[in-house]
Amino acid sequence: MQNQDQIHPREKLDREIINNLLQGEPDDYKLAELARLRIRYRNFPGARDIQKDLDLILQQWQLSEEELYAKTRQIHAVGTIYRHQVKSKDQQDWT
């Protein structure tokens, strides 16, 4: 059986977020989004272009993955970064 890349079910929506991150400067919300997407696509068998762009964003922002996670832990410890995001319980995104 061949290793075949898969398509992530959230890939299309995540692409929009990534395109926004590629064009912006880091702030708390964007750092949290980058960390969330890094975790989502870590070891995912596919979405190579997304994984490459997530690496590129880290490079543009001059952060290592460890630095990103340290910063986002601090952000989440202080408050709810996603408080301005209103989602119904049917729209929760835990993946």
Question: How would you describe what is shown here?
Answer:
It is globular, with a radius of gyration of 14 Å. The protein is built from 4 helices and no strands. The protein is mainly alpha-helical. The protein starts with 10 loop residues before the first helix and ends in a 17-residue tail after the last helix. The chain has helices at 11-23, 28-41, 48-60, 65-78. Helices cover 57% and strands 0% of the residues. The longest helix has 14 residues, at 28-41. It has one domain (11-78).
Structural class: mainly alpha
Largest sheet: none
Work out the count of structural domains.
Answer: 1
The count of helical stretches stands at: 4
Strand content: under 5%
- CA-CA gap between termini: 27 Å
Number of strands: 0
What level of helicity do the residues show? Answer: 55-70%
The arrangement of helices and strands along the chain is HHHH
Q: Indicate the radius of gyration in whole angstroms.
A: 14 Å
Mean pLDDT: 86
The dominant shape is: globular
> Can you tell me the residue ranges where pLDDT is under 50 for at least 5 consecutive residues?
none
Key phrases:
95 residues; mainly alpha; globular
SSE layout and pairing:
Blueprint lengths: L10 H13 L4 H14 L6 H13 L4 H14 L17
Short description:
By secondary structure, this protein is mostly helical. It is built from four helices and no strands.
